[in-house]
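Task: sequence design from structure.
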């Protein structure tokens, strides 16, 4: 059972550019601005108060300001990708793709959101918000907020699930993070919620929680720099079980650089030709630049790379090292053979094998490679012919734009 609140750090989406006059905080929005947020969550999971496992969740969030009005309200579009790695699973060094979400919302200059109830993200809403007055070190303020969770997989609850709270803030003055000093404030809230029954397989009858955060702001850039959090959430369920999550989270925000996808694709196509890499091609896609390796060879019915394929991947690794600022998605694809579940598992495991090999070659750190298996859902050719099946047995490596 996956925890709907695992994506703790997606609340950092709210920490976009702000204006700081004296010691007053306000949000400001500029049309066309784009941001990338990377957060990592480390959590331990307990069932009926007995330890189950530890997991690490990687959240990649891209944000674009669609418009900005004179009253300080900004319209935003955001895409959320979550990936997870857990102890004791095959490919445990690699982040496995979990879910993708899209969201659109407006935020006013104080931080309050206007968002349609159908959206699951961001999880934590109306945090942080500002009081609209000058703040001195030690000053405090409070405001209502809520968490919105995806409990479809965990509990069979079809709609986004709302958990209210009151957040308490304290302005901390200057705080150090990674050898830099930033103006910072704390955000803390406690949850004790006994909700009504929800339509699902099971539902929470009591929710207990705590979150303690420190947010760091970059005054020169006029935007948030990072945040840190410790959290604990306990769900007492209608079937008598208890699920608990304890952990920490941190996040960084980066201004997104525009990717010249056509130019990069042209460079990589030239490298593929020059290096004589067979059964390889490159194309431009919405998410970035995709290198496709067709008919990549593994040991029969396994995810063990054939030795003959490693030279090809070594050459691809050399190409990827030329673009160190771009994160990587490794996607596995199969031909239409066997069961859908088997195809999905095999494609995921083979993508993970390629990602592990790239990791060993130092192409990226583990938190900058995500693996996803597609099974036979995205054929590149006709599965009714041997040549088409050969093309469909492929691994695709995407240099991500954002």
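Answer:
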């Amino acid at each position: 059972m996956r925890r709907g609140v695992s994506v703790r750090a997606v609340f950092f989406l709210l920490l976009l550019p702000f204006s700081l006059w004296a010691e007053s905080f306000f949000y400001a929005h500029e049309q066309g601005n784009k941001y990338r947020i990377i957060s990592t969550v480390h959590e331990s999971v307990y069932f009926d108060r007995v330890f189950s496992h530890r997991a690490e969740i990687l959240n990649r969030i891209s944000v674009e300001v669609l418009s900005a009005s004179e009253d300080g309200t900004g319209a935003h579009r955001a895409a959320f990708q979550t990936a997870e790695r857990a102890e004791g699973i095959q490919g445990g060094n690699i982040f496995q793709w979990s879910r993708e979400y899209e969201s659109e919302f407006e935020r006013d200059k104080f931080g309050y959101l206007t968002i349609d109830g159908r959206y699951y993200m961001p999880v934590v809403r109306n945090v942080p918000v500002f009081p609209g007055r000058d703040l001195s070190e030690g000053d405090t303020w409070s405001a209502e907020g809520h968490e919105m969770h995806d409990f479809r997989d965990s509990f069979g609850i079809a709609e986004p699930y709302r958990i209210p709270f009151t957040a308490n803030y304290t302005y901390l003055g200057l705080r150090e993070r990674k050898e830099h000093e930033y103006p910072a404030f704390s955000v803390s809230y406690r949850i004790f919620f006994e909700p009504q029954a929800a339509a699902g397989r099971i539902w929470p009858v009591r929710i207990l929680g705590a979150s303690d955060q420190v947010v760091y702001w970059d005054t020169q850039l006029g935007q948030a720099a990072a945040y840190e959090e410790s959290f604990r959430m306990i769900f007492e369920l209608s079937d008598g079980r208890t699920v608990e999550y304890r952990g920490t989270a941190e996040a960084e925000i980066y201004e997104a650089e525009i990717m010249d996808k056509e130019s990069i694709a042209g460079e990589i196509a030239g490298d593929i030709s020059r290096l004589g890499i067979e059964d390889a091609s490159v194309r431009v896609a919405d998410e970035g630049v995709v290198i496709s390796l067709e008919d990549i060879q593994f040991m029969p019915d396994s995810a063990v790379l054939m030795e003959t394929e490693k030279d090809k991947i070594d050459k691809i690794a050399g190409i990827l090292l030329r673009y160190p600022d771009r994160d990587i998605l490794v996607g596995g694809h199969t031909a239409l053979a066997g069961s859908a579940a088997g195809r999905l598992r095999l494609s995921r495991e083979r993508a993970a094998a390629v990602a592990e090999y790239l990791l060993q070659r130092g192409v990226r750190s583990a938190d900058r490679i995500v693996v996803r298996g597609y099974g036979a859902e995205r054929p590149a050719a006709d599965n009714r012919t041997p040549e088409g099946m050969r093309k469909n047995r492929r691994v695709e490596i995407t240099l991500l734009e954002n």
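The first helix runs from residue 152 to 155.
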